[in-house]
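User: Hi! I'm working on a homework problem where we have to compare a predicted structure to a textbook description. Could you give me the structure for the chain below?
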Amino acid sequence: MPSGRVTATQPFRSASSPPPPWLLGFLALHLGCQLLLLVPWLSAGRVFIRMAAFGASLLLLFVVPRNRAAYAPTRTLAIAVVTLLTFELLHPDTSMVAGVAAVALNFAILGPIFWVPSTNVTMATFQRLVTVLWLFYTASAVLGVLQSYFPGHFQPPLSSIIAGHGRGQVLSLQIRLASGERVFRPMGLTDIPGGAAYGGLYAILLGTGIVLLPKPPFSGARILAVGGMVAGMMCLYLCQVRSIMVMVGVCTIALLGLLLVSGRGSRLLGLLAAVGVVIPGAFILAVSLGGRAVTDRLSTLVEADPGTVYYAHRGHFLTTTINEYLPQFPLGAGLGRWGMISSYFGSSSGSLWAEIQWTAWLFDGGLPLVLIYFAAVVVASRGCLKVALRRISGDDPALSLWGAVVVAYDVGALALCFNYPVFAGTSGIEFWLLNTALLCAAQDSDRRLLLSRVAV
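Assistant: Happy to help. Predicted structure tokens:
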């Protein structure tokens, strides 16, 4: 079967069955932890709040009832990643506490690969999962726009870590609006200036899926999706996170290509129409609000050819990784030496700096980890691509459309690996959650189709 292993002995769930509590319960906790970070009097427990979502992923490995027939195509590669990181604990430069924390973090990020298949995901469950994510991130994007429209209002407290960087660093995270007033880049439902950009990305990408669906999840969803896409694009313009802007462009091109290849002409025209409205409309609104702060930042993306622009802003990190770090750390530099794990559990004397995902993988496990983790991402994306390129009959007409959206998201995530460590935090969990849930929903659809043929 195109979506992975399918067996007739696996539990069968009706598409109308209530979703299992584990998947949506984890998502609620995952998003709830992000909201708790905005509560000022909980700032002292920030580390524990951040750990809660990752700890929940590890906990579900033990509490979700096992289904031996359930299977994710990336499981073998995920086991190889965790095994390699465990051996890296023996590296002489690994601090044991920081090293164990790094292994646990990566295991938690990969966790959905192991426990999501046992939750018996149906298409209805996947649709609920995506709808909750879409609504949450659309709310973040809308709030980000309101923070610029009404300076000083709807503003969450600034992260204590950001505030501790000094006045000069804090001021660099502000923009000057067309009115002349200085404000932080939209935070949305985060405490980091520019953090609303991630909400903008999801509002656009998942909103596109809602627009393309033959049957939206609720009445008025398409109108809300288009409005959320406009707010999301405005957020990107105002946040000035160029990497996310590029990711949106890459995702859109990939989605257009998939719709074209799969012969969905009407969906393709619908997406082109939506893009034709959202991009210029959001730009006009953003410029009227942000003025030159928007246009000046965007102009840096076209100041030279793409290779030159990338190298000037982020490409030198990749060059340094290949030319300096790879010969120095071919088998890894030891665990827990970079990022928040180093800050929380490591020693500052031996810390390293990883600005992009390729550097992070190299530090943690050398070239073997780079190759294995990249292979896992490719295998997951390939499985979703097979779902995207097929026609689903019966009660799952939207599955292949969501497959195309997830593939577009995967392409964008790979592109972002050249910009920051995508698979080192919540974005990594969401990547594996979406991909694994989609593949499991496709397996459930295959089982249902198989059973219907046997019955006939």
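For your comparison, note the following. The first strand starts at residue 174 and ends at 176. Residues 242 and 298 are 8 Å apart (CA to CA). Good luck with the assignment!
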